[in-house]
Amino acid sequence: MSKKDYYETLGVSRDASEADLKKAYRRLAMKHHPDRNTDDAEAAEAKFKEAKEAHEVLSDANKRAAYDQYGHAGVDPSMGGRPGAGAGGFEDVFGDVFGDIFGGGGRGRQRAQRGADLQYNLELSLEDAVFGTEVKIRVPTMVSCKTCSGSGAKEGTSASTCTTCGGAGQVRMQQGFFAVQQTCPQCRGKGKMISDPCPDCHGQGRKQEQKTLSVKVPAGVDTGDRIRLANEGEAGENGAPTGDLYVQMHVKPHDIFTRDDNDLFCEMPISLGTAALGGEIEVPTLNGKLRLKIPHETQTGKLFRMRGKGVKPVRGGATGDLLCRVNVETPVKLSNKQKGLLKDFEKSIQESGNKHSPQNASWGDRMKKFFDDLKA
């Protein structure tokens, strides 16, 4: 009697993905389980095994290639092919298919988990972020117990094999044909039991401590950048690898400068006379003071760019610029003499028409048009 095509058995196309194969297999496994087909368990078991055999062949890349090229002969042991599936029972199948649902694949002792990664938020001044620095930080973390070398057992003793799971770390629950594996409740998947725990870590193999670490902050970092310190996170359980520590950068606000990527921005007040007649002002930079030439008739809000006075990016590239915006400051606390001079100045400006105040003239034209449109 010829075998049914494996793709047809699973109800999938010949270009089905691994996920499609697994999904189809699960559906058929549930459909043909004997507990769901008590009226005809024998026929259900036969279909169940067909689906299992088809899935195990098609889910193996080498077997699938041989099957696609030679058909059943390519995977039939009697024909020289690789052994197909189908010999196992329901226990093996449900350990594979539903292991991720019930807490493990059911193949031996649970692996010791790698230690957790940690994050430390480091606040930096703008100067330290731009030029780089080295800081010491204190991090609370779980470290391997030195007294027991991470074993959890008192010095001179050792852990014994768990009597519940026999060291496998998992136990099998079975009812009829249905069987699943789960983490051993006695040893919690470790496969070992500690009868005489370490007095320092109380059998945990780890203890909490404050670690002092030196962190080298490279020049050019910005808020959101992270530095990874390998193996400086929490110690793993049962001798598993240690996690990593990620130092997250947070640059504090600056009194003068605002950073935008690799550029720096600042605002500078200038006097009315300097704005009108021109002159020079002193501008701060992170490397010291510079003189900035202000041309005559400069308006408030004018932006000046000082190239190369920004931040050199941490990942390389051109140094950013310093952008300086000037704000014309209205004089305050004037003396009577100063007020008189300003009145005479304002009078002379008005007598000259709008040529000295182009923005005012433009604004007046737009305002007149606005009211004319309202009347129309």
Strand percentage: 25-35%
* CATH class type of the largest domain: Mainly Beta
* Main β sheet profile: 4 strands, mixed
Order of helices and strands: HHHHHEHEEEEEEEEEEHEEEEHH
Write down the domain tally. 4
Strand order of the largest sheet: 10-11-15-14
Radius of gyration: 39 Å
Remind me, CATH topology of the largest domain?
Answer: Chaperone, DNAj Protein, Chain A
Counting helices, strands and paired strands, the structural category is alpha+beta
**Average pLDDT figure:** 81
CATH H level of the largest domain: which superfamily? Heat shock protein DnaJ, cysteine-rich domain
The total count of helices amounts to 9
Distance between the termini: 96 Å
Task: Please write out the topology.
Blueprint: H1 6-10, H2 18-31, H3 41-58, H4 61-70, H5 90-97, E1 118-124, H6 126-131, E2 133-144, E3 160-161, E4 170-175, E5 178-183, E6 192-193, E7 206-217, E8 226-229, E9 245-251, E10 258-260, E11 263-270, H7 272-277, E12 279-285, E13 288-294, E14 303-306, E15 322-328, H8 336-351, H9 358-375
Parallel strand pairs: 1-9, 11-15
Antiparallel strand pairs: 2-7, 3-6, 4-5, 8-9, 10-11, 12-13, 14-15
Descriptive report:
This protein is of the alpha+beta class and 376 residues long. It folds into 4 domains: 6-88, Helix Hairpins, CATH 1.10.287; 118-251, Chaperone, DNAj Protein, Chain A (Ribbon), CATH 2.10.230; 258-328, HSP40/DNAj peptide-binding domain (Sandwich); 336-375, no CATH class. The chain is built from 9 helices and 15 strands. It has helices spanning 6-10, 18-31, 41-58, 61-70, 90-97, 126-131, 272-277, 336-351, 358-375, and strands at residues 118-124, 133-144, 160-161, 170-175, 178-183, 192-193, 206-217, 226-229, 245-251, 258-260, 263-270, 279-285, 288-294, 303-306, 322-328. The strands form 6 sheets. The protein has a 4-stranded mixed β-sheet. A 3-stranded mixed β-sheet has the order 1-9-8. A hairpin with a 2-residue loop joins strand 12 (279-285) and strand 13 (288-294). It starts with 5 loop residues before the first helix and ends with a helix. The model is unreliable at 79-110 (pLDDT under 50).
